[in-house]
Write a structure and sequence with these properties.
single chain, alpha+beta, Butyryl-Coa Dehydrogenase, subunit A, domain 1, 3 domains, 4-stranded antiparallel sheet, 51% helix, globular
Length: 384
């Protein structure tokens, strides 16, 4: 097992870092956070650089990148803002699901548009009464002639309001089926008549945007059904591993950014005639956090290696990486706020954004409680 970057991964990391430094300046990030605006310029630059093609097979117009390549990319994108990683990954996860579960006609129709930047994609799964328990969803789709008619309400739909966005929405196509059965995946452009978006005021991760979606007799063609009728759960599970491993990598990137700026602040901030970083309590705290972060990153890399090699042990390692990485980002952001003192509570210092953004890490892509349940189950323990 070799955790050293390949020459191609080093080039990917360096080129992405240069691109992010050029466009996603601190002022740019602050502006988008304050205005709650989508990073359109940055997304277009990713398209031009070919980053959306990274994980797709060459036969689909991609470059055939591996799970480890995505881990490298996620870490770099999230160092500027975890929300920027989210803007990228939403389209990628949806596209990979179509590549895996879609028909040839769907691949031919949707993937060229996605990889060229003509459209974006986002996921909509949660409902007011169906969060972690997605099998309890009530939004329904009924077959009507040559199409589907959808009614219901979705919430916490990240990126749903982006320009030219196609929402990958999970709905019930058989309302009599038990739990996760009877669920299907439909592709719904966000400008479809009858679909209304309401942007939610969120504590953090405000760039990509989080929305409530109301659907009133929304109609889409029958060919917008991906993976077959009542087969939505397979679509959910098909993309779960890559979502969680790249999310874990993103948490490491964001946590490293928060820690780096705090180390610099500890060097610059003078109290009692010397930098606060010379105080053993602060220096040791930051040293401990960096050590834990390296452990988290090693866990991510091992999980990525297992995914790339299609190991049966991948799921447990991915779940542990997601759990450890997400909780560590929260821990580091909180500790860094303490080092900043009163300055950290000011909106003029960027550490407060990490504090706000980190709070969703232990909720999105599966809560910490769900991750622990899954790990325990894989250990042979039955949790009720």
């Amino acid at each position: 097992m070799d955790f050293a970057f390949s020459d191609e991964q080093v080039a990917l990391r360096d080129n992405v870092r240069k691109l992010m430094s050029r466009i996603a300046t601190p002022d740019y990030v602050r502006k988008l956070d304050q205005q709650q605006a989508y990073p359109d310029e940055l997304y277009d630059a990713w398209v031009e650089m070919g980053l959306l093609r990274l994980p797709f097979d060459e036969s689909l117009g991609g470059v055939g990148g591996s799970a480890l390549d995505l881990v490298v990319l996620a870490d770099e994108l999230a160092r500027t803002s975890f929300d920027f990683y989210t803007a990228y990954s939403s389209s990628i996860f949806c596209g990979l699901n179509i590549a895996k579960m879609g028909s040839q006609a769907q691949k031919d129709h949707w993937l060229p548009k996605l990889l060229s930047g003509e459209i974006k994609m986002s996921i909509s799964m949660s409902e007011p009464d169906a969060g972690s328990d997605i099998g309890a969803m009530r939004t329904s789709a009924k077959r009507d002639g040559d199409g589907w008619v959808i009614n219901g309400r979705k919430i916490w739909a990240t990126g749903a309001g982006a320009k030219r966005n196609v929402i990958n929405m999970y709905v019930k196509t058989d309302t009599t089926a038990d739990y996760r059965k009877g669920m299907s995946l439909l592709l719904i452009p966000n400008d479809t008549p009858g679909l209304q978006l309401r942007k939610l005021e969120m504590l953090g991760r405000r760039c990509t945007g989080t929305f409530e979606i109301t659907l009133d007799n929304v109609r889409v063609p029958a060919e917008n059904l991906v993976g077959g009728e009542n087969n939505g759960w397979a679509c959910v599970m098909g993309g779960l591993q890559i979502e969680r491993i790249t999310s874990a990598a993103g948490y490491c990137g964001s946590a490293q950014a928060a820690l780096d700026m705090t180390v610099q602040y500890a060097k610059d901030r003078i109290q009692f005639g010397r930098p606060i970083g010379t105080n053993q309590a602060i220096a040791h705290e930051l040293a401990n956090l960096q050590t834990e972060l390296e452990a988290a990153r090693s866990l991510v890399w091992r999980a990525g290696w297992l995914v790339a090699n299609q190991s049966p042990d991948a799921l447990k390692m991915i779940t542990m990486a997601k759990l450890f990485g997400s909780e560590l980002y929260v821990k580091i952001a909180n500790a860094c706020m303490q080092v900043y003192g009163g300055a950290g509570y000011s909106m003029e210092f960027d550490i407060q954004r990490h504090y706000r953004d980190s709070r969703s890490a232990t909720i999105g892509a599966g809560t910490s409680q769900m991750q622990r349940n899954l790990i325990a189950g894989l250990m042979g323990l039955k949790v009720r």
